[in-house]
């Protein structure tokens, strides 16, 4: 199976709200400083996905994740924050292992997905290919090996 490291679209800020007993974030606020049209957003191991994408991943029976609570908010430190259209997102609580499950985090807390998950994400958000990297069997970017 082929795996990809997928870069989430950076939003202005993420604030962790709640943790489970293992220290995993299960609720977070996602602050936006502009209207976003991406399917995957986040950084530092905390990722939100659009609700329609999340529903496709669940329906597909993919492994390595469950839902958490995501609260989208406009970043209050910009002009015209009232004009930002906030996305309907779900916190992607990643429980899988990179290069084993369909959804996982690598040692740098980057999102790693199987080729089947990547195809779904890319079909909904073709721009994701600009920041995604195919990985070799050791989890290193194929692009960086050339």
Walk me through the structure.
With 146 residues, this protein is mainly beta. The chain has one domain (3-145). It is built from 2 helices and 10 strands. The protein has a 6-stranded mixed beta sheet with strand order 2-3-6-7-5-4. The chain has a 4-stranded antiparallel beta sheet with strand order 8-9-1-10.
Counting helices, strands and paired strands, the structural category is mainly beta
Number of strands: 10
In angstroms, what is the radius of gyration? 15 Å
Q: Biggest β-sheet, characterized?
A: 6 strands, mixed
Q: Give the neighbour order of strands across the main sheet.
A: 2-3-6-7-5-4
Q: Helix tally?
A: 2
Helix content: 10-25%
Poorly predicted runs are none
- Distance, first to last CA: 20 Å
- Global shape: globular
The helix-strand sequence is: EEEEEHEEEEHE
> Which percent band covers the strand fraction?
35-45%
Residue-averaged pLDDT, rounded? 91
* Tally of structural domains: 1
């Amino acid at each position: 199976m082929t795996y990809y490291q997928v870069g989430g679209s950076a939003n202005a800020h993420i604030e962790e709200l709640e943790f489970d007993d293992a220290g995993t974030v299960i609720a977070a606020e996602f602050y936006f400083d502009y209207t976003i049209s991406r399917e995957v957003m986040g950084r530092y191991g905390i990722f939100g996905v659009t609700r329609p994408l999340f529903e496709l991943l669940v329906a597909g029976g993919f492994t390595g994740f469950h839902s958490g609570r995501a609260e989208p908010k406009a970043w209050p430190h910009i002009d015209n924050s009232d004009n930002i259209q906030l996305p309907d997102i779900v916190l992607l609580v990643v429980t899988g292992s990179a290069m084993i499950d369909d959804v996982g985090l690598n040692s740098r807390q980057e999102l790693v997905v199987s080729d089947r998950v990547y195809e779904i994400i890319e079909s909904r958000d073709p721009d994701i290919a600009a920041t995604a990297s195919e990985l070799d069997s050791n989890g290193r970017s194929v692009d960086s090996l050339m």
